[in-house]
Structure formats: C-alpha cells, structure tokens
Amino acid sequence: MIGNYTKPFLVIEDSDEDFEAFSRVIKQQAVINPIFRCTDGDDALDYLYRHGVYEDFNSFPLPAFILLDLNLPGTDGREVLKEIKQDEHLKTIPVIVFTTSSNPKDIEACYQYSVASYILKPIDIKRLIGTIQGLINYWLDLVVVPDPVNK
Q1: How many CA atoms are closer than 13 Å to the CA of 34, on its beta-carbon side?
Q2: Is the pLDDT of residue 148 over 70?
C-alpha cells in the first residue's frame, strides 16, 4: 500500500485514456490518497479557488500536489500553472507537469514558474504505465510534502 490518506492530490487531465491508465496504476499500487480530477483548466481553477460545486472544503480539500497536463481545453495548463504560482495560498503546492509537449519553450516556462517536475507522457501504453508507476512511487512513497492548509 502506498500513500498517506491525509494528502490528497489533484489530477488535471482532459484525456480519459491517460486518466484511465493513471487510475489503473493507482489501483494496482493500492494508493489510499484521495484523488480528485478536473478535465479542463477552468474547472481546475474553480476547484482551487473554491468556486461553484467546490465550495465545501471538507469535500474538496486543497491538494498536497497537482498533476497537470498542459494541453487542456479552455484555460490551458500553462495559464493554470501561472495562476497557481502567483497566488500566495497556492504557490507552495508542488505541481508536476505531465504532458506530451516536448517544446523547449514550454519546459523553460514551466520551470520559470517553479514546477516540481516536468515529465513527458510516453505514447506507448506500456511506457506510459511505467512512467506513471515511477511518478506514484516517487511522489507518494519517497517525497515528503506538507499537509495542505485550506484557507
């Protein structure tokens, strides 16, 4: 069993296939952390800023870390990252970019906004699952992050 129940995480991913692969690995690894998903940037910002259906702190706690795809409908992941890292209450949440973009400008911009990691999504499903397993093992088993504080 991997994880710490007090540390939820937020997955901002529009691809159902990628999220399904992520969910499969989560189940295989017996992760017990609560996982919340947003499928676009606008929904993610609503979650993080407690708007609309996300007003209840107990039902939708701030995440201990965020897994962010850059290529999202509506407000894209680049803008979501910028918002998070410019906000006093959100900027300390580690953001792991998990994307297909190998564009050097994206990589540079993300590190300018202090991402914790920038990981390229492999196209091959077996490599994708292996990458997700490594990500989960690292972030849930090895890394220590503070408990999120709902403000």
Answers
A1: 14
A2: no
pLDDT (tens digit per residue) in 12-36: 999 999 999 889 888 888 888 889 9
User: What pTM value is reported for the model?
Assistant: 0.90
Q: Which two tokens stand for residue 95?
A: 């953001």
Q: 94: pLDDT confidence band, cut at 50, 70 and 90? A: very high
Spatial separation of the C-alpha atoms in residues 50 and 79, rounded to whole Å:
18
Taking the C-alpha atoms of residue 15 and residue 21, their distance in angstroms, rounded to an integer, is 10
Cα-based angle 142, 5, 86 (whole degrees, multiple of 5)? 70
Tokens standing for residue 118: 């920038």
Which long-range contacts (C-beta less than 8 Å, at least 24 apart) are formed by 74-80?
A: 74/40, 74/41, 74/42, 75/40, 75/41, 75/42, 75/44, 75/45, 76/41, 77/12, 77/41, 78/106, 78/109, 78/110, 79/41, 80/12, 80/41, 80/44, 80/45
Structure tokens at 4: 């710490």
